[in-house]
Amino acid sequence: MSRAEVDRESASTGEWKRQGNRFTDRISRDTTSAPGEGPDDQGRWPVEPGRYRLVVSLACPWAHRALIVRGLLGLEDAISLAIVDPIRDEKGWRFTLDPDDRDPVLGISYLSEAYLGTDPEYAGRVTVPAIVDTVTGRVVTNDFPQITLDLSTEWVDFHRPDAPRLIPDQRDEMDQLIAEIYTDVNNGVYRCGFAKSQEAYEAAYDALFARLDVLEQRLADRDYLLGDTLSEVDIRLFTTLVRFDAVYYGHFKCNRSKLTELPNLWAYARRLYQSPGFGETVDFDQIKRHYYGTHDTINPNGIIPKGPDPRVWTD
């Protein structure tokens, strides 16, 4: 993030506070809109295979979780995929990985074009993941916590026959874990990295490692966070863990322990990485180039570290 973006999302105490999600419509089976139409009066768009485009960065943990869920559920043919360049310029996320530097479906060069086409007054940070309607070019949602849940619950008619059930019938325990992990871990590493005061940094650091210690103990006698079955919360934790040693440990000063020094969490993360649908979605080159190459407030010279060796995830 640029210095201006960090400043805009920082409190007077030095604590970094993530901006809210601007576009929070949903694609829902309960919509009253007909196929081909826009949202109903409650912001619900119709479920239509082939209509929507999921825009992600392989560097971004929030987008990464949507990529994993889409693949695990077998929604590749139902929802198309656009991948932006990991390096953002002053206009934000760019489609420079595509021919002519333009998304071939949406016909735009920057994701910001879809944002401004939906809300011409938008002045916040352009974020991924975002789901864009290919009919109108409008952003349907950039509400990253809801996107993956809706892939599980609203697109069931298009799941592959052997798709995992990522959301249990009884959600209370999972939802509580999701909330704790988001606050202290998923967002906690950013609160460490973008803190503008020593006090704010240390508070975030202490909360991060206190939560990781709890999760380390939780995984002492189970394969997944909810027991013996993969669920949504595992995917949300994985996308932070897989970036931990490569980025967060040094770049964000989360340096009490490496992931490889937390035996249960490390074994859990490696097991997920080696499971179908996980490791093939990880691009350490793009992850490192994004964080070290675009956070000029933290790494002004833009030097990208060579390590760590990614073979530790498979050897």
Automatic annotation (TrEMBL):
Q: Which PROSITE patterns match?
A: GST_CTER
Q: Where is the composition biased (Basic and acidic residues)?
A: 1-29
Q: Boundaries of each GST C-terminal domain copy?
A: 167-291
Highest rank taxon of the organism? Bacteria
InterPro entries assigned: Glutathione-S-Trfase_C-like, Glutathione-S-Trfase_C_sf, Glutathione_S-Trfase, Glutathione_S-Trfase_N, GST_Omega-like_C, GST_Omega/GSH, Thioredoxin-like_sf
Signal sequence range = none
| Disordered: annotated segments | 1-46
The name on file for this protein is Glutathione S-transferase
Q: Which organism is it from?
A: Kribbella orskensis
Species lineage: Bacteria, Bacillati, Actinomycetota, Actinomycetes, Propionibacteriales
